[in-house]
Amino acid sequence: MSANFENKKKLVQDIKDKISRAKCVVFVDYKGINVANDTELRNKIREAGCEYHVYKNRLVKLALSELNISCLDDKLEGTLAIAFSFDGETEAASVIDKMAEKAGISMKFGLLDQNYIDDTALKALAKLPSKEVLIAQLLGMLQAPATGLCRVLNGPVSGLARCLNGIATKN
After folding, report:
1. Is pLDDT at 75 greater than 70 in this prediction?
2. pTM for this entry
3. Is residue 82 located within the same domain as residue 114?
């Protein structure tokens, strides 16, 4: 076998590995992006803990078919880049959504836990806060009733204390 064929086999294996490890995979139409915007996008993707690569569509199709993901075969056309989000579901989509208008790119479709999602769902996913923020909001909502109850129960006691303090300072 030729060295080129072996390199392509390794590349397909690498694509399969990244897709299977990623929580979210975003397919991006990068047609029309300039070098400065592409560099900025790659830097922001890297800062978010994600990866961004351009592969030949044929190699991506091979990797997807080996992973038994066949619903994307007709969608893998044109200039596509792939952003992989390994730590969380929203990071890659969020960075690409923020850069889309400036860079002239668009999210075409994606995979969320290896299930197909369209561009509308990707945009909604990009608007979600990070997992840590969502957990903090949930804890705040769970803590709110107890905090309110403490304030209500503490109200009469603090009112009595203010009255006694007023009487003491008046005399």
Report:
1. yes
2. 0.74
3. yes
